[in-house]
Design goal:
α1 crosses α10 and α10 packs parallel to α12. The protein has one domain: P-loop containing nucleotide triphosphate hydrolases (Rossmann fold). The chain has 265 residues and is α/β, with parallel strands linked by helices. β7, α7 and β8 form a beta-alpha-beta unit.
């Protein structure tokens, strides 16, 4: 059976939807897995817009209102994965019904990624309830860290395990919080450190996941994270990475991913 993974944050602007898109593409294309992305940002869905799918006829909102079956709201993309979009204009729904409406899709997909709402309400609770495990997207600043801590606390209350943090939009500047500071505060390991790149914005302008647009530093980080999520190893082919390993300069997130991956095998 497939695994349902919720990607959450309680603050907009951290790049959560771009992470879902790029990670889904990496899992599908690098590891040949059947992947479904679900837009559970019910109030402001934009995952489909990221991928160039405008005004889909049938959406997740129709499913939750019992106006369509789940398979009717699934669309194939040119990026190697499927998507279940949300509706930009919709009637009132009950987000908590999400789990029951999508649980049977495990039989058809290896990985289902849920792009959650960034608002602390029943919408993000729906993702937590529907998911087997959660990953929190955060940025290395004090404001976002405070919301990340709230997300971790809420997930623990809902008894849905947070398996790791995804550190996004990293500039590698002294004014940013360090990986170690974030891990200590959140009591959770960082599994990916994604640098801030213009490639992300360029990919968005072309409605393409960044991992499929142009090979960059973040591309390899996404692929290594994707491998860890499904319990498969990925050997970074770059000379500079091999050189770092030779001299024992292994990034902390690589160590975390290795431990995480081995636990899933």
């Amino acid at each position: 059976m497939g695994k349902i993974i919720g990607i959450i944050s309680i603050k907009g602007g951290v790049g959560k939807t771009s992470v879902v898109s790029a990670l889904g593409a990496a899992i599908a294309n690098e590891f040949d897995k059947k992947v479904l992305l679900i837009d559970a940002n019910f109030s402001s869905p934009n995952l489909a817009l990221h991928l160039g799918l405008v005004n889909p006829e049938i959406t997740l909102h129709h499913i939750l209102n019992n106006r369509a079956d789940a398979n009717e709201a699934i669309y194939e993309t040119e990026h190697g994965f499927h998507i279940m979009p949300g509706a930009l204009v919709y009637k009132k729904i009950n987000p908590i019904k999400l789990k029951d409406k999508i649980k049977h899709l495990r039989d058809y997909y290896d990985i289902i990624l849920i792009d959650s709402s960034p608002t602390l309400n029943e919408e993000i609770l729906a993702t937590m309830i529907a998911s087997d495990e959660l990953f929190v997207v955060t940025t290395p600043d004090h404001v976002t860290l405070s919301t990340t801590l709230r997300a971790v606390k809420l997930a623990k209350q809902r008894k849905t395990p947070i398996k790791g943090l995804i550190l996004n939009k990293v500039h590698n500047k002294n004014f940013e919080l360090s990986l170690e500071e974030i891990e200590e505060a959140a009591d959770c390991n960082v599994l990916a450190v994604l640098p801030y790149e213009l490639n992300i914005l360029k990919a968005l302008s072309k409605n393409t996941p960044s991992t499929l647009h142009k090979q960059s530093e973040s591309t390899f980080e996404y692929i290594k994270l994707a491998g860890a999520l499904i319990g498969e190893d990925y050997k970074d082919p770059r000379f500079k990475f091999k050189l770092k390993r030779l001299f024992g300069k292994i990034p902390k997130q690589d160590i975390n991913r290795t431990i995480f991956r081995d636990e899933r095998k």
